[in-house]
Design brief:
heterodimer, A: 113 residues, mainly beta, B: 113 residues, four-stranded antiparallel beta sheet
Chain lengths: 113, 113
């Protein structure tokens, strides 16, 4: 069955440190891939997306993600984390036009001063 | 930038009561979705709607749920007889016909007491 795995439930990083959030998907072909961010009590904001082409995609707020077909991964990175990045991060994918998004469990990011 | 709008932002209801959550998708979008997120858990797909009918639904979307597009702009989720376990954030989302990105509303927080 199609699924998304985010192996890290909670990550804490120091402000200014680099960040990598892991995401693996289970699907036979290349899906449409997304990262969303959710602040407490808020909605889902799209950070970035991958459909095809260049496997390194840039998003908002200084985030980037790299698609690796061989590893079925789409990890999110940021070179220097800010305190305002503390939030829940969700990886998601869908595999057909109009199809539903399948979400991972989410990774909660805490940022310490 | 166009956005998906949801009302109410927060509703408290008695168990057994009917609830209607309302959404105004982005105007040129043709695919509509409802998702829910129980507190602290991942975002779960409920139902997708296209061409005035349900295109897919999850096992969560049982007979107590229904969706409707009563006019050209609104998309509603009705829960007929709410249970305590229906307490969650409900997200509406939409996608344009040739688009790839699903846009989410800010959510409607439902508390069943």
């Amino acid at each position: 069955a199609q699924s998304v795995t985010q192996p890290d439930i909670h990550i804490t990083v120091s402000e200014g440190a680099s960040l990598e959030l892991r995401c693996n998907y289970s699907y036979g072909a290349t899906p449409y891939l997304f990262w969303y961010v959710q602040s407490p009590g808020q909605g889902l904001q799209l950070l970035l997306k991958y459909f095809s082409g260049d496997t390194l995609v840039q998003g908002i707020k200084g985030f980037e993600a790299e698609f690796k077909r061989s590893q079925s991964s789409f990890n999110l990175r940021k070179p220097s984390v800010h305190w305002s990045d503390a939030a829940e991060y969700f990886c998601a994918f869908r595999y057909n036009q109009g199809g539903k998004l399948i979400f991972g469990q989410g990774t909660e990011l805490s940022v310490k001063p | 930038e166009p956005e998906v709008t949801q009302t109410p932002s927060h509703q408290v209801t008695q168990m057994g009561q009917e609830v209607i959550l309302r959404c105004v998708p982005i105007s040129n979008h043709l695919y509509f979705y409802w998702y829910r997120q129980i507190l602290g858990q991942k975002v779960e797909f409920l139902v997708s709607f296209y061409n005035n009918e349900i295109s897919e639904k999850s096992e969560i979307f049982d007979d107590q749920f229904s969706v409707e597009r009563p006019d050209g702009s609104n998309f509603t989720l009705k829960i007929r007889s709410t249970k305590l376990e229906d307490s969650a954030m409900y997200f509406c989302a939409s996608l344009e016909d040739s688009g790839n990105t699903i846009y989410f509303g800010e959510g409607s927080w439902l508390t069943v007491v």
